[in-house]
Amino acid sequence: MNPNFLQTPIAYLKGVGPNRAETLKSELGVHTYGDLLQLYPNRYLDKTQYYKINQLKDSGADVQIVGKIVHLKTVEQKRGKRLVATFADDTGKMELVWFRGYKWIRENIKINEPYVVFGRVNRFGNIFSMPHPEMELLKNHERGLKIAMQPIYPSTEKLAAKGITNRVISKLQQQLLLESRGQFEETLPSIILQELQLLPKSEALLHIHFPKDQESLAKAKFRLKFEELFFVQLQLISKKIIRKQKIKGFPFEKVGHLFNTFFSEHLPFELTKAQKRVIKEIRADLGSNAQMNRLLQGDVGSGKTIVALMSMLLAIDNGFQTCLMAPTEILANQHYNGLKELLGKMDVSIELLTGSTKKSTRKTIHERLENGSLDILVGTHAVLEEKVRFKSLGLAIVDEQHRFGVAQRSKLWKKGASHPSPDKGEVGGAVPPHILVMTATPIPRTLAMSLYGDLDISIIDELPPGRKPIKTVHRYDSNRLKVFHFLREEIKKGRQVYIVYPLIQESEALDYKDLMDGYESISREFPMPDYQISIVHGRMKAEDKDYEMTRFVKGETQLMVATTVIEVGVNVPNASVMVIESAERFGLSQLHQLRGRVGRGAEQSYCVLMTGNKLSDDARTRLQTMVRTNDGFEIAEVDLKLRGPGDLMGTQQSGLLNLKIADIVKDNQILKTARHHALRLLKEDPKMEKPEHLPVRKHYAKMVKDKAIWGYIS
Ligand code: ADP
Ligand code: MG
C-alpha cells in the first residue's frame, strides 16, 4: 500500500467529491482517508440475534423479535391518535405503536401471522413498547438475505440534510476498504499480538466497520481500544522517563536545622502513618537530582498542610525560597495565618501576596523575594505575575490544584529562574523548582496512575485520629422548619453553621437573588441580637469578605451564609453543621468538598442536603452517595461513572479525552493491560530501536507528528 494512502484528502474517495468533503470535514472532522477509517460506529443493529419478549431489557437498544400481532386498537389522545398492536411470542406480550401512517398499517397488517419486528424498545411501567418498528412477515424474512450487524455511525442534522446518511457513510467505508484492498500497516509488535491474541490491524478495521457477528466485533473493539490506550501510555511513560533523565532539579541534600527543630519541638500533633509515608516520598524526590513533579492526593481534612510546611522547611534548610499558592484569597489568607502559627518563633520569614495586597507591601515583598531575604511566599494567582521574581525558588506548592490550569503550572516552572551551583558547572537559568500539587478531589487510584503518567503520586489515605464521621442527611424544602429547629439546637450548644447556596456562572444573577432571598429568610428565622450572621459571596469586596469571614472564624457570628467561595480549604473547627441549599445542583466532588468544611473538631458534625421534590436520577444518585459514605475515593468513583472523566484535572492534556474508541472509565481493565505492556516495552527498549519494535516506533512518530498526542507543558 502507498504509505501516504491514509493521508489522502477525503475528496478523492469515490462517492465523496468537494461538496460532501466539506460537510464531512465540518461535521465530523473527517479530512483524510485515515480520519474516515477512524470514524467508528457508535453502535450496531444486531440483526443476527432474535430476542424473546421476556429477555427484553430497558436498554434502548434495537432488537429483533419474532411473534404475532394478537390485537390491534386505536387510542385517542389529546393530539391525534395512535395505533397500538399487542404483539406476543411464547414468552410474553408487548406493544407496537404507530403515531403516523397508521391507516396503511391498519389496512395491511395481518393478525395472527408470524412477523419479525425490528426496532428500539422502551419500557413504560411493566410494558415494553416498540414505536414504528420495521416489520416483515417471517416467511419472507426467511427467504431474504440475512443481514449481519449493521453499523450506525455518528450523525448530525446537517449531515442528514445533505444526504450523507448512515448508508452513505457505510458505503464510503466499503469503498475505502476496497481501495486499500483491506491492507493496513500493523502498529503493534507481534509478541503483543500473540500474547493477547489480538486481531491484526487490517482485520480489526474490517470487523469494526463490517462485523460478522458479536464475537468478531468484540475482538475488533478490543484490539483497537488496546492499541489506542497503548500508544497514549507509551507517550505518558516515555515523557516521564525523559523528564526524570533530562530535567534536573535542585538536590536538597540535607535534612537541616529547621526541619528537625520543627519536627521535635513545634509539631502540634503526632503525624499519621500516611503523612509520614508521604513526607518520606517527597524527601526522596527532593534529595535526588531530578525535578519533583508530584501530586499529593488526600481527602479534605487529611492534613496536607503540615506535609506542605515540612516540605517547605526542607527547601529553606537547603538555602532555597518556596511558595504556596491557593485558588482563593480566603484560603491564601488562612494558609498564611495557619503557617505563621505553626512556625511559631522559628526563624522563618513568611509573607502573603494577593490581589488586595497594598502597593507598598507588594513592593517590599518583591524586593525581599529578589534579594532572597524572604523564605516563604503564600498567595493567590498574584504569585504568578511577571513582576514576582525569586532569587532562588526551590519548591512551589499549589493547593487545590483543580482550580489551576496547566498554563499556570507552567508559569511556575519558569519562576525557578536561577540558582546556579557553580561547583556543579551550572550557570543558572534552566532549573525549574520542584513542584508539589495538592488536591482534595481524589482520583480513583486505578485511574490516577494511568492518567497522570507524567506525575508521581502520593496519597494520604488516612484521617487524623479521633475524627467522628460526619452524619449526612437529605431533606426536602418542605421540611425546612425542622431543619431550622435543628440548627437552633446546635447553635445553643455553641456550634456554628454554614448555609451554602449554589453559584453557577451561567445563571449568576438568579443565583445571587436566591442567596439574598435565603439570607433574608434566615435573618428572619435567626433574628438579632440572639443570632449573628455572616454573609460571604463573590460580589463582595475582598476586604468585606475577609471581615465577614474573620467574624465567623472568631466565633462572633453563628451562621455563615455563603456561596461556594468557601468551598475550598477554609478551616473553622467549631463549625459543625453544613447546610447545602439546592444540593441537587452541585456536583459530587463539590458536595464532598463543602461537607469537608465541617467535621474538623471533636464534636459530632452534620451535613444537611436540601433539595426540592423534583430530582433527576443522577441527582438522586449523587445525594444517596453523599448520605452513604464519607470516603472521598468512593465518591470520586461514583462521580467518574456519572460524569465521565471530562472534568478531572489534567485529562484535557493527557490525550485521554480525545480517544476515538476507548473509554478510560469503562475500559479501565484494558487501560491497565496497555499500561503494563507499554512499561515493559520501554523498559526493555527505551528508544524503541529493536527491529521488532519498528511498527511501534513508526506509528508513534507519526502520532507525535500529527499531534495526535498532546504536547508537553511548554
Ligand atoms: P487538608 O488536607 O484538607 O488541607 P488540613 O491540613 O487543613 O487538611 O488539616 C485539617 C485539620 O487536621 C487541621 O486542623 C490540622 O491541624 C489537623 N491535623 C492535620 N494532621 C493531623 C494529625 N496528624 N493529627 C491531628 N490533627 C491533624
Ligand atoms: Mg487544605
From TrEMBL:
It is an enzyme of class 5 (isomerase). Residues 479-646 form the Helicase C-terminal domain. GO terms for biological process: DNA recombination; DNA repair. PROSITE patterns: HELICASE_ATP_BIND_1, HELICASE_CTER. It catalyses: Couples ATP hydrolysis with the unwinding of duplex DNA by translocating in the 3'-5' direction; ATP + H2O = ADP + phosphate + H(+). Gene3D superfamilies: Nucleic acid-binding proteins (2.40.50.140), P-loop containing nucleotide triphosphate hydrolases (3.40.50.300). SUPFAM superfamilies: Nucleic acid-binding proteins, P-loop containing nucleoside triphosphate hydrolases. Keywords: ATP-binding, DNA damage, DNA recombination, DNA repair, DNA-binding, Helicase, Hydrolase, Isomerase, Nucleotide-binding. Plays a critical role in recombination and DNA repair. Helps process Holliday junction intermediates to mature products by catalyzing branch migration. Has replication fork regression activity, unwinds stalled or blocked replication forks to make a HJ that can be resolved. Has a DNA unwinding activity characteristic of a DNA helicase with 3'-5' polarity. Belongs to the helicase family. RecG subfamily. This is ATP-dependent DNA helicase RecG. It comes from Flagellimonas lutaonensis.
